[in-house]
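Request:
You are asked to prepare a plain-text protein record giving the amino acid sequence and the backbone structure tokens, at your earliest convenience.
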Amino acid sequence: MCGRFTQAYTWRELYELYRLTCPPVNTQPRYNIAPTTMIDVVVPHEAGRDLVSMRWGLIPSWWKKTAKEVPSTFNARAETVATKPMFRAAFKRGRCLIPASGYFEWRPTPAGKQPYYISAANGSVLSMAGLWDQWTDIETGARVRSCTIIVTSANSLTRAIHDRMPVLIEPKDFGPWLSGAAGTELLGPAPDDYLRLWPVSKRVNRTGNVDDPTLIEEISLGAV
């Protein structure tokens, strides 16, 4: 799964990586993003690609209850994303990319779960495969755009930490993924040399501390 991640990059990095065609956005670094908060998402449109803000936790357009009644939809399993009712419509017509500087996973230990930070081996922005949809809030009438991150089986590097990992789309596959020309064949684990990881403070367990860059600093095991 992917339950926390970071978005700490510049507009220039995103502009060059995704060839964005929208006006510049004042991106703000965040180091502990949790589900149901707003995140940066790359979506295709007629003139190119936009960077937009969406709720993390997909609410399908057909949902008839309140947002609070939506089940856990911040991740979608690669094995069932094309057929599961919560995600299959978005898989057909709502592809997106979710940029990330890295993400967190927790390794079970006798002393409790130890968080690790996982990022690109070359320090670049990661592009997580996502789906999005637009829903009309039945209580307020507001239009809500929301998304989910697709997860798959872990590669050998990250498997010791967790058995799942986000699907990472390489730049050469941005077009086919976003257009829908490519399908589930892109939803496998990243190559073992694509990522790096290190242990970080358990302070990341507390939600809300999104502005603290020390959360991703490497620690010696045994530190808090």
